[in-house]
Specification:
With 368 residues, the chain is of the alpha+beta class. Helices cover 25% and strands 41% of the residues. It contains 6 helices and 18 strands. Strands 2, 3, 5, 8 and 12 form a 5-stranded antiparallel β-sheet that branches. Strands 7-6-9-10 form a 4-stranded antiparallel β-sheet, with no helix packed on it. The longest helix has 26 residues. It is rod-shaped.
Length: 368
């Protein structure tokens, strides 16, 4: 088989070079292009501002608890009696009515405790005082004299387990201030109303990893005074409860308006997309395209007055009258009762730019 036979048996196909696709820009009126570009610019600027506000951070003080604690202080008591033939027990429990004549002393148990949620270094300083107040005419606000007698002062050793407890037993006699009252009223030349109380007060010291805090506490229990009342009661208060915490403050950055960030991004994308589309897909019209756009605008505005025909009818043999603008054309159409004819192309632009009104003898036309 020779070379010529090979060429005959094989068909040679020549590949045409691929043609590069080009995007045809659509003509758009200058006003419309400028308006769209302005809207695009506003959207871009607005998007940047909104996104910037959403991304803006500010420092916020954030506190976390390092040590949380509870303080509870309470008491219990018994009235210890003198020898008598009425009661068959040496003491009477809380909540009863007691005889002043049969009372030897009040046995009081005081308890206060601070309990934390974790290990900490704790200690407490406290005092137990008996306090006497003399006042005028049974009015505690009109105080005549006061007397304080310290019964005990204690400063405890530090503990490390996050708990510290005060437990004390005190015997209080109704005659505790008898000598003082006698001398005071003798010098005053008058008797006074009186009240006596047992007061536990102090301060807890808390140290957690170098962070320190103090917590004050006070508990007051009324006590009877000899001779003030033949029968008396002890109005024991409810347990005193308190709490507190040691906190650690740090500054953290927060974005309080972060929900605005995606809104700003959407505006930015819309604005950029609109601007790029206008610049890439549209162009300023040349003279012919500008005329076509103007005619298309006329058709859009006056569509209800126009009749679109496939081809304009032949108007040879009629007198030709050229009209200057579409408004005059519409007025003439309404006056004559004849439609305005035009033949629109695929772009809704009148072919040859003509609008036509026909009468029996005259053809009125507008040509842009």
């Amino acid at each position: 088989m020779n070379k010529s036979d090979t060429e005959k048996g094989n068909k040679v196909v020549k590949k045409e070079p691929a043609q590069k696709k080009t995007t045809q820009k659509r003509p758009m009126g200058n006003r419309s292009r400028v308006a769209l570009l302005l809207v695009s610019l506003v959207a871009v600027i607005g998007g940047l501002i909104v996104a910037g506000v959403g991304m803006k951070t500010k420092k916020v003080k954030q506190e976390s608890n390092v040590f949380t604690y509870q303080v509870n202080t309470t008491s219990s008591y018994q009235v210890v009696l003198k020898n008598n033939s009425i009661y068959d027990t040496p003491t009477l429990e809380e909540g009863r009515v007691y005889s002043d004549a049969l009372t030897d002393h009040i046995a009081v148990q005081l308890r206060s405790e601070l309990v934390g949620d974790q290990a900490a270094t704790l200690h407490v300083d406290y005092d137990i005082n008996a306090e006497l107040d003399g006042f005028f005419n049974n009015d505690p606000t009109k105080k005549v004299y006061s007397k304080v007698q310290n019964l005990k002062h204690v400063s405890t050793e530090p503990t490390q387990d996050g708990r510290v407890t005060v437990e004390e037993s005190v015997d209080v006699s109704p005659d505790l201030f008898a000598g003082f009252v006698t001398e005071a009223e003798k010098e005053l030349g008058s008797t006074t109303s009186k009240s006596m109380s047992l007061v536990l007060s102090g301060k807890y010291y808390i140290d957690v990893n170098g962070q320190q805090q103090t917590k004050d506490f006070t508990y007051t229990l009324p006590m009877p005074i000899r001779g003030a009342n033949k029968l008396y009661t002890v109005d024991k208060p409810d347990a005193a409860a308190d709490s507190g915490s040691i906190t650690n403050s740090t500054l953290v950055k927060e974005r309080p308006n972060q929900k605005l960030t995606p809104v700003g991004v959407v505006l930015l994308v819309i604005g950029l997309g609109m601007g790029v589309s206008v610049l890439v897909l549209t162009k300023a019209p040349d003279e012919r395209e500008a005329i076509g756009l103007a005619q298309k605008e006329v058709v859009r505005k006056q569509r209800s007055h126009l009749v679109n025909v496939r081809e304009l009818p032949d108007f040879s043999g009629r007198m030709l009258v050229q009209i200057n603008d579409i408004e005059d054309m519409i007025s003439l159409s309404e006056e004559m009762g004849s439609p305005i004819l035009c033949a629109l192309d695929e772009n809704d632009v009148p072919k040859d730019g003509k609008f036509l009104i026909l009468s029996d003898t005259t053809a009125y036309f507008l040509k842009n």
